Amino acid sequence: MSDAVLRFACIGTGGMGGSHLRELHARPDVRVAALCDVSEGALDRAVGMLGPDGARAARYTDLAKMLGEAELDAVVIATPHTQHAAHIGACLDHGLHVLVEKPMATTAADARAVMAKAEAAGRVLAVAYQRHGSATYRRAHEAIQSGAVGDIRLVTVLIAQDCLENFLPGRTWRADPALSGGGHFMDTGSHINDMMLWVSGLEPATVAAHIDNFGTDVDICTALSIRFTNGAVGTFAATALSPEWREEFSFYGTKGVLNIRDGEMRLQVKGEDPVVLLSRGRDVRPVADFIATIRAEKAAPQAPPVYGLRVAQVSEAAYKSAASGKAERVG
């Protein structure tokens, strides 16, 4: 496997599927052997993206048929959120390595099931959380885990975007909760939820949520209060109604605070002058990291499936809390 050309399929070829497909196509050690999408138009665009190699890629509108016919080593899954777990399971059943777009699953039970299946199959399962490969967020993770701010007691997080159009009824599949599993919090919020947990190293225990659908069928504005297993507390806010992009994290500990605001990191330790933390090394994209893991060049993917589980736990508890009106335990 270390020297062989890897045979890939892309399942879901629009949007992020197309982005991953371009990266795969650019690699000399990969052959895009199959494409799968329910939309013939999306398949046409994907074939065109591959240029002359497009004719060599088998095209399918049925996943089971593709898995039964195509000779593959690995897949990238970029289908609607609620389909991820079933698609991961089917690919693992056929002995394939899997890179899946976020969220890995929309329920904790589904996340645990695909993790167990990947372990039993001895196959790589990775989540395309690109911030795990970001030099900035890696530096933040290292600083927190090294004890730079001491024992974390409070985390505050905000993601603000101007993307209401994605969630208006009938505009995209993201507006349909049967396909998306939720709105802005399930979508972009998944990335921020993941970074809150990965950088801090905390595990969620309970979640209390208030959600405003803003007249749509999915969440548009979300406010969470989180208690972690170590007793620390956190707040998480997400909105699709902002006129500006704003991404903020603050990790308050017993020794100081680390702030990340729009990609810039600032560390303030008690009794010392604040310093700007500079990132180290280069960004590593999910596809590149996934292939390196398949080839055993590294022991595990940069975004392992446990973070898909953690995000599913917080998300599931948040939606349950919004419906019940009380804090809910993470399952």
Keywords:
331 residues; Dihydrodipicolinate Reductase, domain 2; 2 domains; six-stranded parallel β-sheet; 10 helices; 15 strands
- CATH class of the largest domain equals Alpha Beta
Order of H and E elements? EHEHEHEHEHEHEHHEEEEEEEHHE
Q: Helix/strand/pairing class, anyone?
A: alpha/beta
How far is the N terminus from the C terminus?
38 Å
Helix content, binned percent: 25-40%
Q: What is the H level of CATH, i.e. the homologous superfamily of the largest domain?
A: Dihydrodipicolinate Reductase, domain 2
Instruction: Count all strands and give the number.
Output: 15
* Strand residue content: 25-35%
Low-confidence segments: none
Instruction: Tell me the radius of gyration.
Output: 20 Å
Instruction: Report the CATH topology name of the largest domain.
Output: Dihydrodipicolinate Reductase, domain 2
The dominant shape is globular
Q: How are the strands of the largest sheet arranged?
A: 14-13-12-11-7-10-9-8-15
- Whole-number total of structural domains: 2
The name of the CATH architecture of the largest domain is 2-Layer Sandwich
Count of alpha and pi helical runs: 10
| Overall mean confidence score, pLDDT | 96
Largest sheet: 9 strands, mixed
